Amino acid sequence: MENYSVCQLQKDMRYEGFLMVRSAEKRKDVKGNDYVDMNLSDRTGEINCKIWNWDPGAAAPETGSALKVRGTVQEYNGRLQLRVEKWRNTTAEDPVDMSLLVPCAPRKPEEMMAEIRETLDSFRNEKLRRLTEGMLETAGSDLNWFPAAQRMHHAERSGLLHHTSDMLRLAKGVLEVYPWLNRDLLLAGVIIHDLGKNEELKSDKAGNVTDYTRSGQLLGHLVRGITTLNRVADRLEIHGETVELLEHMLLSHHGESEYGSPKAPMFPEAEMLHWLDMMDARMNTMKSAEDKTPEGAFSEKIFSLDRRVYHPRYTEDAE
Amino acid sequence: MENYSVCQLQKDMRYEGFLMVRSAEKRKDVKGNDYVDMNLSDRTGEINCKIWNWDPGAAAPETGSALKVRGTVQEYNGRLQLRVEKWRNTTAEDPVDMSLLVPCAPRKPEEMMAEIRETLDSFRNEKLRRLTEGMLETAGSDLNWFPAAQRMHHAERSGLLHHTSDMLRLAKGVLEVYPWLNRDLLLAGVIIHDLGKNEELKSDKAGNVTDYTRSGQLLGHLVRGITTLNRVADRLEIHGETVELLEHMLLSHHGESEYGSPKAPMFPEAEMLHWLDMMDARMNTMKSAEDKTPEGAFSEKIFSLDRRVYHPRYTEDAE
Amino acid sequence: MENYSVCQLQKDMRYEGFLMVRSAEKRKDVKGNDYVDMNLSDRTGEINCKIWNWDPGAAAPETGSALKVRGTVQEYNGRLQLRVEKWRNTTAEDPVDMSLLVPCAPRKPEEMMAEIRETLDSFRNEKLRRLTEGMLETAGSDLNWFPAAQRMHHAERSGLLHHTSDMLRLAKGVLEVYPWLNRDLLLAGVIIHDLGKNEELKSDKAGNVTDYTRSGQLLGHLVRGITTLNRVADRLEIHGETVELLEHMLLSHHGESEYGSPKAPMFPEAEMLHWLDMMDARMNTMKSAEDKTPEGAFSEKIFSLDRRVYHPRYTEDAE
Amino acid sequence: MENYSVCQLQKDMRYEGFLMVRSAEKRKDVKGNDYVDMNLSDRTGEINCKIWNWDPGAAAPETGSALKVRGTVQEYNGRLQLRVEKWRNTTAEDPVDMSLLVPCAPRKPEEMMAEIRETLDSFRNEKLRRLTEGMLETAGSDLNWFPAAQRMHHAERSGLLHHTSDMLRLAKGVLEVYPWLNRDLLLAGVIIHDLGKNEELKSDKAGNVTDYTRSGQLLGHLVRGITTLNRVADRLEIHGETVELLEHMLLSHHGESEYGSPKAPMFPEAEMLHWLDMMDARMNTMKSAEDKTPEGAFSEKIFSLDRRVYHPRYTEDAE
Amino acid sequence: MENYSVCQLQKDMRYEGFLMVRSAEKRKDVKGNDYVDMNLSDRTGEINCKIWNWDPGAAAPETGSALKVRGTVQEYNGRLQLRVEKWRNTTAEDPVDMSLLVPCAPRKPEEMMAEIRETLDSFRNEKLRRLTEGMLETAGSDLNWFPAAQRMHHAERSGLLHHTSDMLRLAKGVLEVYPWLNRDLLLAGVIIHDLGKNEELKSDKAGNVTDYTRSGQLLGHLVRGITTLNRVADRLEIHGETVELLEHMLLSHHGESEYGSPKAPMFPEAEMLHWLDMMDARMNTMKSAEDKTPEGAFSEKIFSLDRRVYHPRYTEDAE
Amino acid sequence: MENYSVCQLQKDMRYEGFLMVRSAEKRKDVKGNDYVDMNLSDRTGEINCKIWNWDPGAAAPETGSALKVRGTVQEYNGRLQLRVEKWRNTTAEDPVDMSLLVPCAPRKPEEMMAEIRETLDSFRNEKLRRLTEGMLETAGSDLNWFPAAQRMHHAERSGLLHHTSDMLRLAKGVLEVYPWLNRDLLLAGVIIHDLGKNEELKSDKAGNVTDYTRSGQLLGHLVRGITTLNRVADRLEIHGETVELLEHMLLSHHGESEYGSPKAPMFPEAEMLHWLDMMDARMNTMKSAEDKTPEGAFSEKIFSLDRRVYHPRYTEDAE
């Protein structure tokens, strides 16, 4: 049985593979028995299926999780449906390639997280190391799949790690050019600057943001990040300038009040954090726009850039 | 011995009365003995004095405190100086009228504080009452003399209480017109909205702001108020919507990002808090401007209003 | 015959009650006889009806007036229609509850107007009393039903009185806190500040604004209010500061040029008028937004606020 | 006796000529007799003089008027003073060249006024002709010397006529290019657009603006022009579209709210009026800036233009 | 055979006349033979036609060109189609009235161009004459039909000449009022100010803009005009102030950075060029808006003006 | 003879060393003989000197050049003066340390230039290499000492090279993180982006900007850079996309119209160029501000940042 993409499915085909739960709801059939109505998807499309005679005591599969599914494609009222014969939740052992199911960061979360931990181990400033570690602990394992946004830049599974680890690499580059910058402070700022996002956004494990949280709406990830940092610092009994510098870096990293920072960056590491954030967000947006635009052509106006984007041919003989 | 104002002093006059310490520094005279060089003031002026043979183990009098002083006015190098014969720190029993020494709120701090406590006692919402009480405790007795600003509105001794208690009275008025507003939430918001200021400003006990604190500059009183509120809530083990509503009211009470609030008010009590703050600040500024402008004339441009102010004659027969 | 709402009507029901004329047009039937095609409504919905054999000399019923109607519900081309058997215009004696027919102010216009007149009687400044009275006379009885806007705040029957009388109550509250404000000037400003609106908007008697007038578009209610005030003052032979203060309050009550006031408020009563207007308009908008949003949820973005609104649960145990 | 400029005067010179009264104050000498202390000026400078034994019943000469003066130059405390032997007020017969005394429009007021009257006579629209005439009558003979501003453009004697008559000539030019514009409406708008300025500014007869009037500050010349127009229209019993079009042209001629017009121009003649006003104001400012800047050089930043101005050499061989 | 407009065509009518090629594509019929599918239009509408058995070696007719066509109107699938019997490209001799086919400038391009050349002949400044002539040569014969914009003002065949020649007439008018302006410099600026547009826009010969060019998007007509001017000046070996003045006029003619000019006009002729451009663009927009609005009514909001436009009745008796 | 700094000089000291010519003017003494009046300086101060009996045929020393000087310090009218006994122009062989005389880039110009040339050699895109080389040739040897600004960032000798070479290092770092960027295009953009500055600013060889050039004022370095690039491309006969991409990078590198770029960056390399420019300019400004501020303190408001800057202590135990 070949490994088809959802967009390739046709009536009467046999299917076996991994699919993402897009939505799943327990209902009752005409006889009063429980069944589950699900939409399953990969990156190429979505297909509906029903699983009859559902155990009344069991919950429906979790939105954002991956299932192993086997069945036959049928047609019902002109639309394809998967008649599921066998299914199960996937485990860590399954060779699921998440990047076939949903938009994913280009690198594995484990790899990116290792890079961050390695950076942390290299800190000489003990207080900064412990505070940063405390923040990572608080964020917990959600970091592995958390996206960086609902729609703007890095709206993908593990997008938050993708954004953070690219900024970390940029930061190491600029430290070569400006060796007078405080290395540990800048890198700590990079690692924690967006950790408040997982209190701001509601995301399933596929990295799909469904909504903002109440405190995301009322306070935002900048302020929420600061209150979390205060709790971590209180717990670790760390106080003084070090904490306030990090608080300020969290608060000012959007650069100006118009973009949500009530204070502009007031020391070089805070200023640099802002530009690194800006640069990585913009490069991600520009890249996406180019990927969707043919060479030699202009895109439509990109909302977040407020301009059209040109995809150059880049060849020497381009007219 | 009459009770002169500083501006009335002339050479050879005898003086006895209460004066404010504007600055005080311990120095050594030519023989190596300690003396104190002080500037003393009331609302009408400032005069220098030296106190010789200062006890080397004693600190100079505290800036912003009031002293009882007796002495003679002398002239030295063309400027008046007070030759102090006797002096002491004032105590709670002394009949010091602070409003003769520095700009003061028009009501006694004790009276305003009582009004706030009485309001608090009338709360039905227990969580709001405990959180508000916790915030007042954290602010402590500094509240009695803390000003609301360095230069803008209510820049006076007890200005913070003045501003808060006037807003409280306004709030009670608007609750009559809009009875559907949540009373306790609005009043709690009014009481705590500017408490972060005593972590933002450095003020002496005369209500004179000398500078901003580091965290006042790097974070501001909105964010500092929020982290303090979180500490109070953690200590009281109060969580959930109530805390987040107060956090949002602190964050949004300047109304828009341009004025320092990264979030605009998102529910009616937060919106009302913003207008009450605005209204009271502006009335205080307008009143000060009018007090300095003759009837029937226009002031110079007032910086914080970006306009000139007219002082009407207000009489029916004014041409 | 029961008193149904329009949304409850079904085929073959008998109906008798009061309905609002939404639109009414005289036409000719196939035989050349006159008939009237009308849409009738209450707050719950709208139904079409035809009245055959209309007196050619008589005008169609007035849009915005209420009729007493009896008839049977029929279906025509799949849509309900009222076959009217009997109808008449309503009179002052009819027990018409306007608030069932259209959005209305929560209080009776007569009651609100009485409050205004009572306030006027309490004025000590004779010139202000006569000018304000003159403005009310010029506005005339339209005030009873005039709305305050087409869509923004207080877009309802008697909305102008609703807005004015709520501001009047707010004003009396703030006068307690700032007794140095000129009472009569502030209250006069409140009463006349929006009277120019009935030269700016075209509204039917149900408070439904259909359009702006030409001078509403070309000049606006601020300037039109000023020219009306000048005519009133000329007629009453009142000149001098009093008139100019009122003119300025009319011109500046939107606060800044961006919102239509070419001059910012230049004395305390003008400044206060602006904040009272702002506060009442915003509370009305916030209340409407909350009424449409479930507790614990956020509204869509509200156009006139440029933000989403949260409807708090307000309970102590809300998570 | 030669005709010296004030800047040429030296001790012991004899002087006879016309001078402008810059300031004049009646005082008492040591014996209790009245004298007048005056500053007299022409465009080149100012000189003080005293006139002793002043008739106690007579007022001091009027600021802004021209005197015929004869006397001798003396020195007192190191500064020149004119010892006046004979003086009198000037009359219409005196050959006073105002342009030697103060900044003046380049053309005679009589000539500019004649141009305006001639234009008025050519109107075919009777209502526009009568309204415009009524506005000119209300402005009265002050128009002959009134300046257009305190500091910005056309701040000179007869500057208002200068600005108006230049715009009138521009208007006649554009009517050739856009013959579909309503001629009389555009020209009427040009003539009356700034007439409100003589209720906005306080100027002496030399065209020197000393201050704004109260209603200039509180309302401005746009709104004051509209109320005056309404009085004129009421008196002439003219109503309807014609009046409203002119009202709108007055209100909108500054183009946008940021520059004081709460409504932007809504028909072509109003739009054109705005651009003519802008163009003439800017050309006057640009010309003044160039006159003060050497060829081939840049001026300092010109405040009202927010930029530096270059004075080109304009020759073909300029490098 | 009468001369029908496209909107008048009905089934079975015979048609002969000139039509514009709106689009034209070569395709293959079921037998593999080439045919052309075209949409033909005049100002009133569009009709489809097919021309069978097309010569495989010949290109389809050029979009934006006019054809002489004879045929019969048929109906196919409910839509009219022209069955073409005979057709040919038009030549200079054909009496084609372009203004019946597409929106055109009100004057002939030849006439407008003659006016420009005549102006050029009157220049006394030889360098300005040669540079302006060089720019016109570079633009070439496209000027005859080039529009001034895609949608804003003068979006019509020969719109660029229309705009330029109207500005030239305005310029001659203002030179009468401000004779101190440098005549040749101002007129040269007017003639060349928008010539960069034919490197910015892609237009067919009917004046229909289909897109922006790459350099139009990346650089714009201001900068492209400057590089072209530099090439012309290098070729003519003209350097120095004259060239820089023209460069600045090109760069600054949009007036401020917000509208695309990185430098504001810094000398009077540059300033005047900006206002003439503004004035003519606005009058064109206002006229179009009025032409579409009934007398006595308001238009919808006009996008490029950000306001509604009123079409006055302009009569003395208009209410 | 010791090597004193100018600020250490005292009366009667003997001096020998290298000094910078700050200003130098040829004058005539009382006997009609030529002498030169000069101000000489190093980074610590300035001293005046006269050189008598100057050769009438010789020019005064060039402002911005370094001289070798020997003499004695004298006092004249209370100010120190250097009585020069011997002096000469310096040559390439002299061990002049420019960084003692004026603010200088921290690296040698030769070293930075070598880095740029090396980068250029690594280009694979031949057209980009030749265009970039052509631009460097046009700029010529002035590049060795040219500053990047008059006052903002990198206002120092060789500041333009300093800024360019730091950006080049940053660029190489970001290319590691975003390998999909076109390397040669980005690096070419970095090298040429500010070359227009040496046509915009007038600087002496000490890197001291005295003024803007005419074309700097009228056009700016963005547009001047583009016309220079066009001349280079014409000369090298290179056309097409490559040139337009570079033109756009020059035009858009200030990011938005408010900062002088009429076009925002439209492809990733242009976007990145803007952020690199921003980042390096800001880091330079931040560093300067910190260098002038004690640890643990705030600076005054920095004009170009519109904020105060904090100089952190950066230690773990900082309170």
Largest sheet entry of chain A: 5 strands, mixed, barrel
Quote the average pLDDT of chain A. Answer: 93
What's the Cα radius of gyration of chain A? 23 Å
Question: What quaternary form is this?
Answer: homohexamer
Residues in β-strands, percent of chain A: 15-25%
The helix fraction of chain A, in percent, is 25-40%
Number of strands of chain A: 7
Shape, per Cα inertia axes of chain A: globular
Low-confidence stretches of chain A: none
- Report the span from N to C terminus of chain A: 49 Å
Number of helices of chain A: 10
H/E topology pattern of chain A? EEEEEHHHHHHEEHHHH
What is the topology, as strand order, of the major beta sheet of chain A?
1-2-3-5-4
Estimated structural class of chain A: alpha+beta
Give descriptors for this structure.
alpha+beta, 7 strands, two-stranded antiparallel sheet, 319 residues, globular, 5-stranded mixed β-barrel, homohexamer
Question: How is this structure best described in words?
Answer:
Chain A has helices at residues 98-101, 109-121, 126-139, 159-177, 183-192, 197-200, 214-218, 220-236, 241-252, 268-291, and strands spanning 14-28, 34-42, 45-51, 66-76, 79-89, 201-203, 209-212. The first copy, chain A, is an alpha+beta fold and 319 residues long. In chain A, the strands form two sheets. In chain A, strands 1-2-3-5-4 form a five-stranded mixed β-barrel. A two-stranded antiparallel ribbon of chain A has the order 6-7. The longest helix of chain A is centred in the last third of the chain and has 24 residues, at 268-291. Chain A is globular. Chains A and F meet through helix 4, helix 9 and helix 10 of A and helix 4, helix 9 and helix 10 of F.
